[in-house]
Each structure stands twice: as C-alpha cells, then as structure tokens.
Amino acid sequence: MRLVLPDAVVHVVAEGEKREGEAEGGLHGAALRGVRDDVKVNLLDLDQTGFPNLALMRLSTWLKSHGHDVILNGAGKVDQVYASAVFSWNRASAEFVEARGGQIGGTGVSLQRKLPAEVESCNPDYSLYGIDYGLGFLQRGCIRRCEFCVVPEKEGNAYEASSITGLMNRESDRDPPFIVLLDNEFFWKVKWALSKLEEFIKRGIDFCPSQGLDIRCVTPALAETLAASPYWNVHHTSRQITFAFDDSSIEKRYRKGVEELLRAGIPPRHLQSFVLVGFNSTIEQDLKRIEIIREYGIDPFVMVYRDWRTGQPVRGQQHRNLARWVNRRLYKVCAFEDYWPEQRRGLQGVMDLATNTPPTPAS
C-alpha cells in the first residue's frame, strides 16, 4: 500500500522560510532543538509495510517528552513533519516531503542521516503503533560481508546493542511477554547467543528473530537450546524460526545446519527458509535451492532482490513469477514450468470476450 502524500499533509514551512536551528539535510540534533514548544508533529512512515518503524517510535517518545502533540501518518496542517523511509524505493516520497519543509531520514534516504544520540537512547513509544510487544535490537551489525546487503556498510561489524530487559514493552500486560528482534546476526557469538536463548527460556519470554538466523553458525549446542526456547513467528500465532539459504555455495553448510536442528527436535513445520533470487543466481539454481528446502519438509519463502542503493527491482518476470509460485504455496498444486500467470490472464481475457462477461481479476 502506497502512502498518499497530498501537499496539505506535508506543507509545514512557507516557501523561502527556514526554522530557527534548521540546516540543510536530514534529521539532526539542531533541527530537533529548533522545534518550538507545544507544536503538532506529524510522523510519516513512508514504507507502510504494516511493520512498526523503530526510529519513529523513539522520535515520538522524545517529542512527547518535550510537550509536543504527535500523530502518525496524519492529514491536515501541522507545525512539523518528520518522515522515515527504510527502503530506497520510497526515496522519491521522502524527497517530496523534504521539498515541502519536512525532515527526512532512514536507510532508504541516506546512511549518513541518523537519529541524534538523545533520541536514539529513548525507549520506543509503543502507543504510536498500538502494539503490545517489545521491539528492537539485541545486537547490530554483521559478521558477514554479503554484497546484496546494506547492513555491513550501514552498521559495520557485529556488536551488542541492548539487553532483553531493555527491549521489554513496559506498557504491556501481555502474558507471556513477547519481543520481536530486529537483529541481523543473532548467532554472531555462540556463547552470547546461548546465554540469550537461555535467558528467554528462564524468564518465560516469547521472541521472534524476524530477520532470520544464520544456518552456517548452527552448532549442536545452539540447536538444542533453540529447540527448547519459546520462538514464535512475527505475529505470535504459530511456532516458527527462519533461516536463510541465499546462495547455492552454502548448500553443504545449509544441509548440515538443518540436520542439526532436526536432530535437536525442531519439527520441519516450525522451520522456514528465506531464498534470495535475482541477485547472482539463475532460475535453475533458485529452483534447486527451493527443492532442497522442500526435501526437508521446510517451507521456502522467496525474496526478490532489489538494489538497496537505487531501489531498482529485478526486471525479469520469471523471478516475480517464482516468488508468487513459492510464497502462495502454489508449488503444492503445480510445477513451476506449468505456472505462467501471464498466459492464464491472456487466456482468461479471450474467454471473457468470447462469453461477453466482465474481465475476471487475476488472483
């Protein structure tokens, strides 16, 4: 869903006017200190993925602590707008906001524009999105240097970022508590990961590593402790843990890691594997990875590569078809070579004309 940005939503500064303390560029300490007391602030989540934007939640806490009235994705006249785009394909929307006097930031805009330290240290405002679970990073950065990923350039080497207690939603009475982790490499240190898993178990805190885990780091001890831990999917509706199989070159390590997990007692129905396509692999290689995943009774989930620098998507229709075929579980009813939605839509159109019926929407 795209966020509609009429001028009235984002026009906060008259043409040629500049607020005291505001400089060129994105969100920064001077811009925040330049916001006068008791103003109405509109926070725009330009990605609109349905997943909360942690930076906006922290900014909301800071603004409210200074007496400001904060709304999320609101409409109408406001005194100040701050907008965030995590994904680069929403950069044009961010630039639209900036051109009308708003402050913009996020990975999709620039890796150099970051929250001021006084905002970054704030606890998230969970009321902004109305969520009753905790959200954040136990660790940031990564031990890998994958070319397709923004994390190494954005965050650098892996490091500890917070404690489990620090990620608890203190506004929630949810029982048991639930935390959605945004960690990029939860298994960066085996002893550290084991201690966190053991803490989740001991304290009875459910958790979801939403970005997936590194199958190459799985050891017998990690597999056994993970099997005993209260892992859940991001919606907290079913038991699920996700690992990535992004490159055919790690096939042996993927198999070894999966077999460790199964030996530890994690059932295949609890497992999911991300499959990156459209970066440096052929459709045949992608299909082979999907076949390997299904061989273990695990559900694959295809993620089509987009350049994080430009936001440009893969142009090949086959990759988009592959994602639809896998993610809608159509592999359970037909082979990929028999799945041609363009032909089906074309044929349906001919049939509609022949029977003089309104066009049938494609599923």
Outline the structure in words.
The protein is of the alpha/beta class and 363 residues long. The protein folds into two domains: 7-109, no CATH class; 132-332, TIM Barrel (Alpha-Beta Barrel). The protein is 31% helix and 14% strand. The protein contains twelve helices and twelve strands. The chain has helices at residues 7-10, 29-33, 54-65, 91-99, 117-120, 151-155, 190-203, 220-228, 251-263, 283-295, 317-327, 341-355, and strands spanning 40-45, 69-72, 80-84, 103-105, 134-136, 139-140, 159-160, 178-181, 206-209, 241-244, 271-277, 299-304. Strands 2-1-3-4 form a four-stranded parallel sheet, with helices on both faces. Helix 9 (251-263) links the parallel strand 10 (241-244) and strand 11. Helix 7 (190-203) runs parallel beside helix 8 (220-228) and helix 8 packs across helix 9 (251-263). The longest helix has 15 residues, at 341-355. The protein is globular.
The chain-level structural class is alpha/beta
Distance between the termini: 17 Å
Q: Identify the CATH class of the largest domain.
A: Alpha Beta
CATH architecture of the largest domain: Alpha-Beta Barrel
Number of beta-strand segments:
12
**What's the rounded overall pLDDT mean?**
85
How do the helices and strands follow one another from N- to C-terminus? HHEHEEHEHEEHEEHEHEHEHEHH
Number of helices: 12
The structural domain count equals: 2
Major β-sheet strand ordering:
2-1-3-4
Task: Work out the radius of gyration.
Answer: 23 Å
Give the overall silhouette: globular
Oligomer: single chain
Q: What share of the residues does DSSP label as strand, in percent? A: 5-15%
**CATH fold assignment of the largest domain:** TIM Barrel
